[in-house]
Every structure is written in C-alpha cells, then in structure tokens.
Design the sequence.
C-alpha cells in the first residue's frame, strides 16, 4: 500500500487529500476532503490527471506572428511538454477561423489542436 | 463618424466595455459608441490565451480569445458603433469627451458615459525594490502580451515575484515555452491566486514556490543577472541573514493591479481609496451625474465574468440616465466592517435590486458574511483572492427601517 | 590610417561635453565629440534633479571659488540658451525653508553674498507668505529665503539639443565610441577607440565619472576625485500640485541634500541622498531610498511610499567629499599641453553654459585659434511635443502625419509620430526613446507602451525585435522568439 497527496481545486478551501492506494493502484481510502464532489475529483485526478493545453503556434503568411490554440479536450498531464514540442513545428496559415483544427490527433491522443481565434492574413 | 447624438459612450473595449456596450443596446439605447485605443476589440483578453473564462457567464470553459469573440460578434451584430485606435484624452465633468486618432481630434458629449478602462499593473518602483536598472524586468501582464501576442520571450531563466493568477499563469506559459522558472516568490504565507492555478501552473511543473519570501534586490547594470530573495517576518519585513541569491535573466512582477482612473479623476469623479476606483451607487453611477463605471476600473475583479456582469449594471444605469429616468430616494452608505477590505457599491440610492461585491482582508475559515440585517451567508472559507458577490432584492431593501443611513458589511466568525 | 582626424576632440557626451561642442561650433574649428553610450546625456547628466541653481552647499556665491562663479554666471544664460534650442525651461523660484534662528542667520549670510555678486532678487518671506505660496510644506517652517531666479530644465533634452546644434554647425558627434587609450605623438594626440584611431591636437576631457581615468592615460590627472552616488526619486504627477517652487530644507546629516522640485513636466523630484560608491554601480539601496523618503516627509508630511513612481542613482565626481563643499576641475593640465579637464561634480547642468565658455578660454590659452564662423546658426527646431501644443497645432500635425494621432504612451500622452521623430534624430534604444520623448516615464513605467515602442524601434531601425535593447549592447530586451527554446 502507498499514499498519494492531492490538492482539490474544486473550491477556495483547497482541501489537501490523502489517498491510500493498493499495490494494484486501487484507491482504498480518501481522507482530508470536506465534500463528496472533492472526493470524486481527487480520485479522478489520481487515476487519470488530464489538462487542457493552451498555447500558441507560429504563423506563416499572416500579419500576426502567433495563433492562440487549445486542445479540443483535456490530454494526459504528462504529455504537456511533448505536446509543446509537437506544436512548435506547426505553422498556421490563413485563412483560419476560431474553432478550426490546426493539428489533428495530437501525439496520438485522439485530441485535436484547434484555433481559439480567427487568423487574419 | 458623426459623434454628436450618441446616447451611451463606453470607454474601453475589454470584457467590461464590450458587455456594457451590448447591454446598453439591448436596454434600448439608440446610439452606443465603444471607444478603444487598440486596433481591435477585446482588450487584454487576446493575450490571456489560457482557459478558465466564461464558467459563470456562459457556463463553458473558454480561453480569453474565445470569450472575447462571443462579445465581439455580438457588438457588431447589434450595431454598436466602434472607434478603434482611438485614445480618450479627456472627459470633462460635463461629460464632454475629447478623443484622438489618426483622423485627428474630436469632441462630443454623449447623454451618458460608461467608464471601462480596466486596470494597470503595480511596478517595481511602487514596491521599492533596490538595485540597478537592467533590461529583463517586466510586469507579468506586459510579459504576457510579449510572449502570447508578439511572439517574443524575455529570457531563459525566470523568477516571478507574486503568486497572483497572472504570475502563476506566466510561470506555466514560460515553462511550456522552454524557459526555466527558478522560483515563484510570494510575500504572504499563502498563494495569491486561485488554488487551481497553484496546482495546474506550479505543481504540475514542479516550479518552486517560496512563500513568505520577497525579492530584496536586483543585480545587473545592463541586463538582469540575478536577484536576492529573503524570508520575511510576520510584518512582511525581510529577515537579515536569510538572503539567497538566484541567478536569472528575467524577473516578472505580479504584485497587484490598480484601477486605471486617470480620466475619471480629471472628470471630477470621487475615488475610493480602498478600491482605487470610483465610489458608485448600485447602478454603478459615480459622483459625476451620467458617468458610470464597471469592471476593473471600478475595483479589481477575481474573474473576468464578474467584470462583464458588473459593466452590464453600469450600462443599464447609463441607459436609464440617457432616457432621463432617475431614481431619487434615500441614500444609504455601505461601510466595510470586520475583515472586509472593501464593498462596491459604496452607496445605495432609492430602490433595489443591488448587486454588491466585497473582498476580505485575511483568509479565515468558518465565517459568516453579513450585510447589516439584510443578508447573511456562511462560508467555509473566505480568501482575499476571491470576491464575494451578494444580491439584494428590492424586497430586502424595503425591510430597512426608515432613518438608516449606513449599513455595515462584516465578515464574522460563524457561531 | 586614422579613423578620425580633427583639431579638437571632446571626450564625453554629457551636458558639459555637449556644451563645449556647441560653444566650439561658433568658431571655425574642426571638432569632434565621442560618447561611449548609444545616446547623449546618459551619465551624471541623466541622474539629475533638473535644477538650474547656485548649488546647495557652503560655496554658494563665493567668488573665490571657480565652481561657485561658473554656476552663478550660468544662471542668467540658461533661459536664452534653452529658448534658442527649443528645450523645456521653467523659472520656478526656490524657497529655502527656515525653521530657527540659526538657519535664518546662515541664509542671511548667503543672501548678502548673493547680493555682492549681483543677485539682488533674493528676499525673506514670512510664515504667512510662505504658506500662501506653498500650502503643503511642513508647518515646522517659520519662513523661507526666496530666490526667484532658480529654474528647472530637462537636462537630457538640453544635452541632446546642444550636441545636435553643434553637429549642425559642423562638429562631428560619434556615439557608442569609447576611448581606450591616449598617447602623445609630437604635436598630436593619438586616441585609441573601439572604432579606430583618432588624431587630434587638443583634447577636452569631459568624461564625467571617468574623467580621472581618461586623464590618467597621459598622467594628466592632477586631481583626485571621489565618485559619489546620489539617489533621486520621482513622485506621481497627481502629486505635482503639492509644490510649485523648488523647496530646499537644510539636511539633517552630511551626505544628504533635502530638495523637492517640480520638473518641467509636472512630476516632483526628491532627494538627494549622497553616498560614496563604486563607479559603474548605479544600483539604488534600500537605505538610500528610506533616507530620501524620510527627508521628503520632513518637507511634505503627507507623501507615502506608494506615491513614488521611479527611483534612480547616478554619480557625481567630488573633489572633497567629506567637507560639505567641493571645488570643480575646469583647468588645463599642467603636465600635458593642450589637454583640458572638465568636471563640475555638481551642479553640472547648472554650470554648463559658463563652463563651456571657460573651456574655450583655456583652449585659446593653450594655443587654439578661435575665429568666429559667420554661418553659425544658433537656433534649433525642437522635435514637436504633442501634448504641449494647442489643439489647432495638434490637428494640423495629425493631418500632416497621421502617426501623431496614435497615442503610444498613455501616461505621458506620447504619440507614435514623436517616437518616430526621436528615432530619426538618433534614438536607437528603449531608454533613448524614453529620455527623448518621455514614453515610459509615467506612472505605469512602460507597462503599456514598452511592447509598442519595441515594435516601432524594430520597424524604424530595420532590425529584428530580438535585437532591440534597453540601453545598448548587452541589454537586449527580448532576445528569444516564441518556440525557439523548444527546438
């Protein structure tokens, strides 16, 4: 058995939860949370921490140097830095509208990278 | 553009100004003019490329540019008139507005004005950090524009002073861009911004957070070479002997925001020293008749959604004023009491409803926030970084006995 | 082959070097000025209270001292000079606060000395008149000595205008040119610089903080100077109404002056805290800042730390630091012919006009032939300062060049047109733009305009934004591009 510490981000309280976890990775006990939703969050955050990545990509043929982008849904937390390396190679070309895909299936996650604003020429 | 005959002029097209202009139009104003100094609508939202916007307003998790676009589209759909790349030079106490742009100088007098100029960042000099005057020191917001809009990075090794949301978000941004954030330094015993940002911007990337520390000196004549960081005592004074040196080429300052009220002051608007913004009533009308204010120009908000909401109140007030509708009635002052840093509005005139925002001074757990005898609510925790929004209905106000001139707003230990 | 050959070489583009260059340009003399920084007036000149005064120590109006004479002789010369060159100048008058009989007696002596050398306008004002003139100053004061002649200027703009006027009248001005060594070769000096060799017959050493180092190349340093660091603070414009005169209060401790003065632009400057320092280390310290603020509060009790928008430190070269007064070095070397050392220490800006004339007298004695140049044009057209113009002129300026309708610095209302003009006239750094136009000098300290000024600099200079500097090589502001660190 091992322990994991996770801070709940659900509300300003910021409960510091302790999770007891079996060798197989099963959460056995959660202490330190002050609400049910928090317990659900910390267990999920322990099992599968994911984040929406927001960043920029370089442009080509536009008067602005950067296009802001986001992942269409959250991706595994440990892939954030690798994702940055992948999108550093992308060159966005106008015309592009907010919501359009800039890079498909980022790092095989099945998640797309989409523009968060229109790209002017 | 013919500027005579404008009903409501809104100064600044950020999240507050755009919401105000839209609301003014929706509330029936014929001609609404939105004046913006930059080349496009949206203000700072364009540099805030991270998500977390719109959860309250739209019930969706949007990035800054996405949040902006929703408002921009609506501004144009509704036929709000816009003056871009235009700076307001002066607003007179009689609401005379003088603007400048590449077409020249123009003056006009709208029926009502909504101030939505936002805020600016506190600088190194206001903190009095001694040392040389090297390149490599930026406020976090300026750096955010440079990194996210201009595509330029200030350096490779970064120290960030202040753990407000912008500071933490820039720590993550620069880390993702490949720079190394040596430390985020915070003078208080707790993080200044949201818990979510502490976890997702700092912990996720193992960025060291030095609580109860501050930067006491910067080093370097031409370019920043490092900073001295020291632990502080409970009075926030550096403790001699605790200094450490951190080598870095960039120092970002995220040490507070100040409502931008240069124009307001010259218009004769009374300012509240507690908020740095105008004193207003529930319609967000300032002490100058027909001049309203909303968003960060009034007080610095925690969430952009609240900026937009509040500016809508100001717009509704402005439209009423422009139509010649004015509520007269008794005036009641709202005064901050125990552990309350400020309350906006500062006064209530006549009838409700009243939306008020307040912030506490210190973090406390197990509290009750009370607005006189009109309203109360228990909070598991209150924090200076998170504002508290209170809605008072007309019915609530009618419960007030005659002759009450002042209501105290308090944060007290819940029994 | 020499990179540059000239008759008179001026080393140092501070206010003294520029004033000498401009004075020389009245004559048919070949002259050149070298400055190591990317712009003029960045040494002691820039770290300045901006006052045109008689000094603030025991030497005031003492004819037996050269520095005293150069300073008071300059006072009436400054206004016409500024008018000729289009430099902001404002005669504001000085009130030296009196708190007791001892101070009254001291200032009575000063007044008598001033009258002896022709300054008859000084007079004592009583409590009521003082508070009518300055309602916000400390109630500790029982009166003041009023000197109506005292004025304020913009020292950096003055220096730039002097050099620009000199250049238009034939003097070569070379920036980013540092003197690395000097040798004598017959009747000539061979000056080694980072750009190549300069040959000249006369040298005016006005190298400011490095005046002794330059003199030492030829063992012409027949003086000892101590680098004294001075700390100055600037208050928000909103407090500009607090005083309208230069207010001087007798300091509590040696090594301090206690002055509050409104600048030509309406900010209040306060200081000066003086400390011996290491040259080149222009850092401020908390001790200096605290002392300056404490002193300021003695004059203006209501001011707080949060009202300070900027602080800085710079150096003055003092001949005798510990005595409470000091003499200047404006003299030809006794060992090296045709070599003139120029260092005022303080107040260098105030003394510049008369010092330049004195330097020419010394050069003449050393054998320089001065023949007036009838084509000398004393007037210089100042770059437009948009915010100071009446609306009709603002409008016509925008019609001529729409960039004057684009406000880049919101705090000081500086337009893109002014920034482009400053770059055209020689600004090539962020600080250069700042000192020439005031963009970035306001309360947000460049928070808004910095990204915009960087863009304009890159565009006008035709360089990448990554090469734009704060104050010259080694101070690159944004050395990297997005994604560059992810390769």
Sequence:
């Amino acid at each position: 058995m091992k322990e994991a510490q996770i801070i709940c981000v659900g509300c300003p309280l910021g409960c510091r939860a302790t999770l007891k976890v079996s060798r197989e990775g099963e959460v056995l006990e959660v202490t330190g949370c002050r609400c049910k939703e928090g317990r659900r969050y910390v267990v999920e955050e322990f099992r599968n921490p994911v984040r929406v990545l927001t960043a920029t990509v370089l442009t080509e043929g536009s008067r602005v140097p950067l296009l802001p982008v986001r992942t269409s849904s959250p991706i595994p937390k440990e892939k954030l830095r690798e994702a940055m390396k992948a999108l550093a190679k992308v060159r966005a070309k106008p015309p592009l509208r907010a919501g359009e895909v800039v890079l498909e299936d980022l790092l095989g996650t099945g998640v797309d990278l989409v523009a968060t604003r229109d790209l002017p020429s | 553009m013919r500027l005579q005959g404008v009903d409501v002029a809104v100064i600044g097209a950020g999240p507050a100004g755009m919401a105000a202009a839209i609301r003014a139009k929706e509330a029936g104003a014929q001609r609404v003019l939105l004046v913006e100094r930059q080349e496009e609508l949206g203000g700072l939202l364009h540099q805030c490329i991270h998500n977390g916007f719109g959860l309250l307003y739209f019930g969706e998790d949007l990035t800054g540019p996405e949040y902006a676009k929703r408002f921009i589209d609506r501004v144009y759909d509704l036929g709000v008139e816009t003056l871009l790349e235009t700076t307001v030079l002066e607003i007179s106490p009689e609401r005379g507005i003088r603007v400048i742009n590449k077409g020249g100088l123009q003056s006009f007098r709208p029926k009502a004005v909504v101030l939505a100029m936002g805020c600016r960042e506190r600088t190194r000099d206001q903190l009095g950090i001694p040392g040389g005057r090297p390149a490599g020191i930026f406020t976090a917001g300026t750096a955010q524009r440079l990194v996210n809009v201009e595509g330029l990075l200030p350096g490779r090794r970064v120290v960030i002073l202040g753990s407000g949301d912008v500071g933490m978000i820039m720590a993550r941004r620069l880390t993702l861009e490949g720079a190394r954030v040596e430390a985020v330094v915070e003078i208080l015993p707790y993080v200044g911004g949201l818990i979510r940002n502490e976890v997702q911007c700092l912990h996720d990337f193992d960025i060291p957070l030095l609580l109860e520390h501050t930067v006491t000196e910067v080093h370097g004549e031409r370019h920043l070479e490092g900073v001295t960081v020291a632990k502080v005592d409970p009075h926030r004074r550096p403790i001699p002997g605790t200094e450490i040196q951190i080598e870095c080429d960039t120092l970002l300052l995220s040490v507070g925001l100040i409502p931008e009220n240069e124009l307001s002051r010259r218009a004769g608007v009374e300012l509240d020293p507690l908020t740095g913004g105008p004193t207003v009533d529930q319609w967000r009308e300032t002490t100058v008749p027909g001049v309203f204010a909303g968003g960060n120009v009034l007080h610095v908000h925690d969430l952009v959604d609240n900026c937009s909401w509040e500016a809508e109140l100001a717009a509704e007030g402005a439209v009423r004023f422009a139509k010649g509708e004015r509520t007269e009635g008794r005036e009641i002052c709202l005064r901050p009491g125990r552990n309350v840093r400020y309350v906006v509005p500062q006064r209530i005139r006549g009838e409700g409803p009243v939306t008020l925002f307040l912030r506490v001074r210190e973090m406390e757990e197990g509290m009750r926030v009370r607005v006189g005898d009109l309203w109360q609510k228990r909070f598991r925790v209150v924090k200076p970084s998170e504002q508290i929004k209170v809605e008072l209905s007309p019915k609530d106000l009618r419960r007030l006995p005659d002759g009450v001139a002042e209501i105290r707003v308090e944060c007290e230990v819940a029994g | 082959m020499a990179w540059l050959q000239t008759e008179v070489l001026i080393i140092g583009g501070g206010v003294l070097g520029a004033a000498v260059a401009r004075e020389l340009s009245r004559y048919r003399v070949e002259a050149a000025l070298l400055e190591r920084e990317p712009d003029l007036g960045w040494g002691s000149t820039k770290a300045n209270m901006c006052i045109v005064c008689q000094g603030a120590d025991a030497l005031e109006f003492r004819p037996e001292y050269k520095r005293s004479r150069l300073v008071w002789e300059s006072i009436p010369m400054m206004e016409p000079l500024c008018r000729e060159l289009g430099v902001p100048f404002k005669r504001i008058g000085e009130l030296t606060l009196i708190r007791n009989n001892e101070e009254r007696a001291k200032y009575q002596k000063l007044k008598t000395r001033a009258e002896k050398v022709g300054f008859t306008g000084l007079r004592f004002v009583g409590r009521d008149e003082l508070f009518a003139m300055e309602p916000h100053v400390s109630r500790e004061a029982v009166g003041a000595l009023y000197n109506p002649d005292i004025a304020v200027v913009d020292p950096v703009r003055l220096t730039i205008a002097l050099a620009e006027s000199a250049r238009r009248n034939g003097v070569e001005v070379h920036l980013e040119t540092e003197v690395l060594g000097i040798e004598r070769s017959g009747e000539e000096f061979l000056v080694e610089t980072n750009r190549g060799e300069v040959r000249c017959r006369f040298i005016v050493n006005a190298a400011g903080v490095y005046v002794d180092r330059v003199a030492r190349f030829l063992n012409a340093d027949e003086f000892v100077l101590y680098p004294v660091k001075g700390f100055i603070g600037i208050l928000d414009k909103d407090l500009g109404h607090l005083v309208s005169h230069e207010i001087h209060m007798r300091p509590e401790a040696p090594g301090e002056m206690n002055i509050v003065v409104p600048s030509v632009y309406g900010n209040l400057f306060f200081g000066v805290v003086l400390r011996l320092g290491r040259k080149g280390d222009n850092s401020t310290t908390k001790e200096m800042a605290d002392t300056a603020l404490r002193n300021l509060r003695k004059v203006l009790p209501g001011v707080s730390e949060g009202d300070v928008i900027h602080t800085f430190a710079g150096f003055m070269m003092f001949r005798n630091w510990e005595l409470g007064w000091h003499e200047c070095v404006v003299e030809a070397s006794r060992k090296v012919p045709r070599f003139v050392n120029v260092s005022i220490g303080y107040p260098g800006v105030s003394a510049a006009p008369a010092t330049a004339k004195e330097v020419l007298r010394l050069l003449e004695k050393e054998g320089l032939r001065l023949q007036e140049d009838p084509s000398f044009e004393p007037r210089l057209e100042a770059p437009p300062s948009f915010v100071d113009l009446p609306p009709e002129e603002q409008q016509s300026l925008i019609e001529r060049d729409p960039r004057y309708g684009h406000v880049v610095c919101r705090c000081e209302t500086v337009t893109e047109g002014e920034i482009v003009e400053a770059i055209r006239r020689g600004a090539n750094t962020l600080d250069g733009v700042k000192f020439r136009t005031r963009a970035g000098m306001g309360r947000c300290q460049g928070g808004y305009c910095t990204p915009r000024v960087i863009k304009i600099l890159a565009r006008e200079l035709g360089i990448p934004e990554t090469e734009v500097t704060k104050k010259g090589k080694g101070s690159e502001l944004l050395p990297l591009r997005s994604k560059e660190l992810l390769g």
Q: What stands out?
A: The mean pLDDT of chain C is 95. Residues 122 and 241 of chain C are 24 Å apart (CA to CA). The first strand of chain C starts at residue 4 and ends at 5.
